[in-house]
């Protein structure tokens, strides 16, 4: 597993925001320096304001609505203007969420219910006012997910893969230059003595996520780690297996709605923390 750098505990109260990133999910606490561009992504997203209401809309042709919290289903187009309002935002690949969380026919972009907000806000404000590390961020992430997404299910963390071959493959992802290899999935399959097709099927069955999605998050984590340590984006991108900084920027924006340059150019105000898998 990748060694995880020690992160200084951070809080929204001291004016410094933090982006915590795990495999397939992320948590952002603090102010947002710019409005997001209209975008959609594979991950489900939710946000809760700790101050004034957010501006939320499906796209540039629609007027902003003022919401204290929002939920965007996987693939839902959305644009968020959270400038001036510290908040808590989560992203989760849908494979992390229970079946029925986004039932057919449900609104793809909707406000968080008033009852859920009343239950969430005291804990979120308390967490935002004090130091926050990966362990605290983990608890905060799941409290937002369960309150915001649990319309048809009860989202929770998947257990570790029971099959030793998949655990071994995950542990081997940082051996040598695998993330930069031309056929990383084939190489991982060979290392655990499976055909590539069987490996792909077993990996999804065991983790709930395709190996391709898992490797993308692994590369994002590696790039975030490199950039957080001061590497130029082009160097961080190449070291994580992206073709170039433009490739990293496309995937980062598609996941978070912001370009990495918009986050890392404010590195004195935004702490980016890669967290260990839980």
From TrEMBL:
Which UniProt keyword terms apply here?
A: DNA-binding, Plasmid, Transcription, Transcription regulation
Q: Which domain of life is it from?
A: Bacteria
Q: Where does the HTH araC/xylS-type domain lie?
A: 168-266
Q: For this protein, what is any one GO molecular function term?
A: sequence-specific DNA binding
What InterPro entries does the record point to?
AraC_XylS_family_regulators, Homeodomain-like_sf, HTH_AraC, HTH_AraC-typ_CS
**Residues of the signal sequence?**
none
Q: Which PROSITE patterns match?
A: HTH_ARAC_FAMILY_1, HTH_ARAC_FAMILY_2
In terms of Pfam families, this protein maps to: HTH_18 (PF12833)
Protein name as it appears in the record: Helix-turn-helix domain-containing protein
- Please give the organism: Rubrobacter tropicus
